[in-house]
Amino acid sequence: xxxxxxxxxxxxxxxxxxxxxxxxxxxxxxxxxxxxxxxxxxxxxxxxxxxxxxxxxxxxxxxxxxxxxxxxxxxxxxxxxxxxxxxxxxxxxxxxxxxxxxxxxxxxxxxxxxxxxxxxxxxxxxxxxxxxxxxxxxxxxxxxxxxxxxxxxxxxxxxxxxxxxxxxxxxxxxxxxxxxxxxxxxxxxxxxxxxxxxxxxxxxxxxxxxxxxxxxxxxxxxxxxxxxxxxxxxxxxxxxxxxxxxxxxxxxxxxxxxxxxxxx
Length: 264
Prior knowledge:
Blueprint: H1 2-11, H2 46-59, E1 64-75, E2 78-89, E3 92-105, H3 113-116, E4 117-118, H4 126-137, H5 147-152, E5 161-173, E6 189-194, E7 206-208, H6 228-241, E8 245-250, E9 256-261
Parallel strand pairs: 3-5, 5-6, 6-9
Antiparallel strand pairs: 1-2, 2-3, 3-4, 7-8, 8-9
Organism: Allotamlana fucoidanivorans
Pfam families: DUF1853
Protein name: DUF1853 family protein
């Protein structure tokens, strides 16, 4: 299963190209899929789990040397933040931040394409994350508190570049699947989202609710599919818990698609 997670991660496109969003430069790396041969702690939260997958990917690349991972920057007893990776790529020292997100497009939020993308539980937003990267996470490298850490690793901050490795799966409204993105990568669109009022439009389908880490993977046919009625019952618990669930739906014609059921 870890291999499928790794393949799903590697095949997820970056959310934009170059530095076209907030002048945040995307990390560029060849996307070859190696046979993964490391042990991963299954109790890790998805974000930390993805960082381990990135670590493996970086180790496979002959042009990259990892200097340090998950460097916690402290000022006295206070933790100011963490640098995901310090590395050297083709002789260029670099600080790399890793982000892997799931966002849904809500046209009622904000005015711009970036404004419209929010977390499926409405607790976070793409714009908020971009601002945090720009104003807090990346500037940490140049802070006074960070200097001793860089000195330990023999890194000169004046020679360092910063990159984000920002991948995402995007989901459009059920009745808005024609939307074309102008700024973000259309290849990140993986499906739609739907609420209880629209669920009847899927009554001919079969359903599967993957575990959280399996959200990384592409849908497959060899799973225990639920009937519409069983999924509808399950959806009521998602509503009660205010939990947005990723699911796969298999249509009558055999096509399988990813989607989110949202409680709102």
